[in-house]
Amino acid sequence: MSFIFKGGIHLDSKKSRTERKPIDEMKPPREVVIPLLMHKGAMCSPIVEIGDYVKLGQKIGESTNPNSAPCHASVSGRVTAIEPRLHPNGDEVLSVVIENDFADEREEIFPPLERFVALGADELAEIARDAGIVGLGGSAAPLSEKLRASKDIVDTLIINGAECEPYATADNRIMIEETETLYDGALITAQALGVKNVYIAVASDKPHAIAELRRTLAKKPGIKMTIVHSKYPQGAERQIIRSVTGRELPAGRDASDVAVMTMNVSTAVALSRAVRSGTPLTERVVTVTGSAVANPKNLIVKIGTPIGEIFEACGGFLEHPDKIIIGGPMMGTSVSSLDVPVIKGTNVLIAFCGGEGELPCETTCIHCGKCVQVCPMNLLPVYIYRSFMADELSECEELCVSDCTECGACAYVCPARLSLVSAFRTVKEKLSEKTDREEKTDEDRK
Does a structural domain hold residue 86? Predict the structure, then answer.
């Protein structure tokens, strides 16, 4: 078993409705809406115009900023609009709307490397950027920058298959059904970075994935499997590094600072496909589940597909949903429209009914300290919240609120049902605005 990280909670996984369901391919939608911001970093600018015909896989958005990832057409067809559209983050983001002609005429982004070719870190980073690959486990950080930052620095690669969020089973099914491709993506990355320690980390609540990986890795050298505890937030970068290597990643530092690179299993599969077949990231596996969903599934979905059509592909709703969440229930975002599209980081869609998604009423903090016990970042949530309520931003900053990963463990165990994560998010936004104002003032003085 693995090392133990401090804090965390044991959750009801809620995975039983989809964990044994094979991945199905959803019929492509009539229209896709592709936001030009689907990653952490600089937003892309459109490089197509209304009326243009685009091919499947063609770049439609690009940025000169290295901390970015291009956007590609997930279907072939005509560009009908370039305008702000609803985004999973709740804002309206400039998006490219494509009417699908169902011809699937493809654009070759780069030549495939079907035979084995040893790639260097810079070459692999360039392929990852051209393919628009970002972290598919939730981080959505451009993979190209992560590869470059890890070059000649890391000695360990961790392929993260913890998938600790309740309801999510997409990565679990990928580890079962795409084991060979997963191995290939891990091996390509390890050889490019020159690392010798390569681990696929799987949570202990995934026996079928563990069995399949054991069978595959027994015949292939160079990669080991590590079984980590099924404790939330096991899949977070800091926690998975601690669990696999025993190394402590200080808050605010990068994984490369402790000589480790982490990569989600879905990201590794996408990278293998980009290298072997020249395929950019235009689709991903999404778990569609929840009490309101008639027939929960794991689906391969085109990027930009409206979530309403995805729920329809799962038999629609048993009754009108009370709440729809994109992402897991702990760190996901609730949305109010079925027109919101799937983006690169969308791993699960959940629809609740029967009052299951309702939040309990807040009461008064009793200073029980449970939030302190479960915080995986060693913070003091109760004191940060008290400073927030007193509008003492400086005290929140001194208590390291910026280190909060918004995992939600504190809010989950809080007997007063305080909106702790929402409060901390608000504090961080205010502190960011304060920093921006101070920087602007300093520039004006100059």
Answer: no
